Fold these 2 entries.
Entry 1:
Amino acid sequence: MTRMSLAAALAFACGTALAQGKAADLERGKYLVEGVMACGHCHAARVNGERKPALGLAGGIALPEPTYRAFAPNITPDPETGIGKWSDAELGRAIREGIRPDGSVIGPPMPFDSYRAISDDDLRAIVVYLRAQPAVRNDVPKSVYPEQLKPYGPPLAKVSGPDPRDRIATGKYLVELAHCMGCHTPRDEKGMALKQFTGAGGQLLKRPYGDSLSRNLTPHESGLRDWTQAQFAAALRENVSPQGIKYKPVMPTAAYGTIADADIAAMLAYLRSLPPLPFGGR
Ligand code: HEC
Ligand code: HEC
C-alpha cells in the first residue's frame, strides 16, 4: 500500500514535471515560430494578401524569384496536406537540415544556412508548438527549381545553444535564427551572399509595393554606430526610423514586434561587435 502510493506520488510528480516541460516548450516554440523566426512571414495562409489567423501556417503563397518559383507549404498537422504524418524527428530534420522524410531536399527561400544553428532545445520547442496547432487542410502546389537541390551540409547530431550569460553569443544566435543577414548582407550578381561584408546592407529587395535596399547594420557611421537601443527596438518592432519615418514593409514586423527587450539588447550587442563596414561593404 505504502509502495503504491509512493509510486503514484512519483508518477504524479513526473507527470507534473513533464507537463511543465511541455508548457515551457510551447511558450518558447510560440516565441520562436510567431516571433523571432517569423515562420508565418512565408508559411501563413493568406486571403487577398491578408493573414487569416484561423488558417494558421497552412501556407499557399507563391514566393517567386528570378531563378525559381517556390510555394510555402502547409506546415499544420493536417495528415494529407500538411506535416501530420511526419514524426517529431522527421519534422525537426526538415526544419533544421532541409531534408524531408522521403529524403528530398527542401529549397529556398527557407533559410537553412541560418536554421542549421537551431539548438536541440529550441528545435524541440518549435516542433512541440507546430504539433499543437489546429490541422488545416490546404493543398499547396509544388515548388519548381531549375536544378536538383543539394543538401545544406552533413547530417547534424547535437547542436547546443549559446551560453545565456554570453550576451554577444546570444545575440549572434538570435540574429541567425531571425535570418537578419539573409537580407542585410549584400549579394553578388549570382545572388550569393558576400560573407566578407556581413551586415553591410545594400541588398536590393524587389517587392510588389516597390524596391528597397537593406540598410547597414554594422557599427559604421552609415550603420548603427550612433543608434540607441530604443531606436533599434523601434526599427525592429515598429518599422519606424529614428526620424519617425515608416520603412517599407519588407521586414516581418508583426513577428519581430514580439521580440523581448533582453533579446533586442543581445542582438544589438552582437551587431556592435561586427567590424564597421561602409554601406554595401565597398
Ligand atoms: C523566407 C520564407 C520562409 C521562412 C521564413 C520559413 N520557411 Fe519553411 N519553407 C519555405 C518554402 C518556400 C518551403 C518549400 C520549399 C520547397 O518546395 O522545396 C518551405 C518548407 C518548409 C517545410 C517542409 C514542408 C514540406 O511539406 O515540404 C517545413 C517543415 C518548414 N518549411 C517549416 C518552417 C518553419 C518551422 C519555419 C520557421 C522556423 C520556416 N519554415 C520558415 C519558406 C520559408
Ligand atoms: C526580408 C528582408 C529583411 C529581414 C529578414 C530583415 N531586414 Fe532589416 N531591413 C530590411 C530593409 C529592406 C530595410 C530598409 C527598409 C526601407 O528602406 O524602407 C531594413 C531596415 C532595417 C533597420 C533600419 C536601419 C536604418 O539605417 O534605418 C534595422 C535596424 C534593421 N533593418 C534591422 C534588422 C534586424 C536586426 C533583423 C533581424 C532581426 C532584420 N533587420 C531583418 C530588410 C530586412
Entry 2:
Amino acid sequence: MPEYALLKACNIIKSYAGVQALKGASFELHAGEVHALIGENGAGKSTLIKIMTGAVDVDGGDLFLDGQLVVANSPQHARQLGIAAIYQQPALFPELSVAENIAFGIERKGLWSRIDWHGRRDRAIELLKQMGARISPEALAGELSMPEQQLVEIARSLGAEAKVLIMDEPTASLPEQDTQNLFRVIRELRDRGVGIIYISHRLEELALIADRVTVLRDGQTIDTRLMKDVDRGELIHLMVGRELSDVFPKREVQMGDVVLEIRNLSSRRAGINNVNLTVRAGEIIGLAGLVGSGRTELARTIFGLTPADEGEIRINGRPVVIGSPAEAIRHGIAYVPEDRRRHGVVLDLPISHNITLASLNGLAKFGALDFKREREIAVDFVNRLEVKTPSTYKPASTLSGGNQQKVALSRWLATEPGILILDEPTQGIDVGAKAEIHKLMCDLAAGGMAILMISSEMPEVMGMSDRIAVMHDGTVLEVLSRSEATQQKLLSLALGDNLGAQASLPA
Ligand SMILES: Nc1ncnc2c1ncn2[C@@H]1O[C@H](COP(=O)(O)OP(=O)(O)OP(=O)(O)O)[C@@H](O)[C@H]1O
Ligand SMILES: [Mg+2]
C-alpha cells in the first residue's frame, strides 16, 4: 500500500441551521487503500463526504487532494479532480435507460459531443457485467429495484475512473452474493491505486474489505486504526463511547393462529409465481433471497401495489381480495418499503407528522387532529429508537439518512397492524438502534402481531426469524425452521439449488 495522503481533510467544521454536524473532523485517505468511515446515525459521516464531493459548503477547515489545497469545491470541480461518490440513496435519472445513466455519469466536462460516449457506455456496461449484475442496459432506471439501482450507480462511478471513490453504504440493501461481487470489484480498484472511502453500518463486512477504519462520533474524529488490529467490540466502543451489546437474542413467544395464509399466489405483473406461505400471530418469518428473487415484489403483491391475478390470500381464515394498498390497510396490513426516500418520509413535514401520518385517522378527534397525542406518540418513538434531533417539530429533511429510516419505520409501527411487512427494517441503522428495533419487533410479535421481514443481512435473517422462506425466481422454494437454517443452506437455496441444499445437510 503506497503510504501518501491522496486525500486529506483537516479540522472540518460544518453547521446546518443551528446543528453542528462536524466539529473539527479530520480524515486521511491513502492511494490504494479501502478506508472505512464509521459512526452512529447522525455522527457526521455523510456530511464529511459531501464536503469532499463539493455537495455542501464547508464552514471551516481544509481539504487537500494530492497535497494541493482544494479551493471553491463544487460537485463539478470534485468530479474533475477525480472524486466520485455513491450516495446513501441512489440518484439515477428514472426516465433514462441503465446504459444512458451510466454514460451520463461518466461525462466529466459536460461536453457530450467530444467524448467517446459509446466507448464509455460499453466499458461501464462491461463493469456491470463484471460485478455480476443481471441488469439489462436497456431497462429504464426508474423501473429497477433499489439494489439494482445501487449496482448501476456503482458501475457508473467505476466507469468514471475516479482517483477517489466514496461509497456511502453501498451494500445497505445488497444481499450476500451481490456484496461479494462488489467486494471483488472494490479490491481490483484498490489494487489499481484507487483510494476508497467506505461507509457502512455492517461492521462484520469491514473486516473483509477495509484496510483502515476511522471512527466519527458527534462530529469529531475519535480514532483511525488498522482494521486488522481492532475487533468488533472495540469498534462499537469507539463509536458509541460505552460498552454495548449489539446482539439482541430473539425471544421465544407463544404463537397463535395463522393470521396470513397465501395459497398459490401469482402476480404476472410483479413476476410472482405460485407462492405458498403462512404466518402465525406472534411469528416472525424471514424472507431471504437474492436481488431480483421476488422478495419485495411478493410484499408489494400482498400489500395490493401489484395485485395478485391468481391464487388466494386469507386473513384470519377468511379469503380476502386485496386490490389496493387502501384495502390492505383496511385488512390490518402495514408495509414498510425498502426505498424509504421515495415512499418513506415526507421530507418537508415535521418529524412528528411523519411518525403519525399513517395512524392519523385514529388520532383525529371530532374531526380535528389531537396534537397532544400526536406529539406523545412521536416523542415516544423518537426516544425508543434514539432518533437524533433537537425537536420533533423539525422537518424530516434535517435528519441523517439512518434517522430518516427510523422515522419511516415508526410511522408504520404506530399503526399497530395485525400483519406487518418490513422490507430491510434496519438498513442504514447503527448498531445500537438496530438492537432496539429488533427488541421492538420481538415485543410486537409477543403482542400477537404477524411479521414478514425481508432482509439481505444473513445474521439478521438467521437471528430474528422463527422460520425462513427462501425465494428464487419469483417463488418460495422452501421454508426452513430456525434450527435447520444454516448460512450455507440459505445461500444455495437462494441460488435456486434445492438439491445442493439437501446435499449439504450435515451428515
Ligand atoms: N440538511 C440538514 N439540515 C439540518 N441538519 C442536518 C442536515 N443534514 C444533516 N443534518 C444533521 O447533521 C448531523 C450529521 O448528519 P449526517 O447525515 O452527516 O450523519 P451520518 O453520520 O451520515 O448518519 P447516518 O448513519 O444516519 O447516515 C445530524 O445530526 C443531522 O441531523
Ligand atoms: Mg449518512
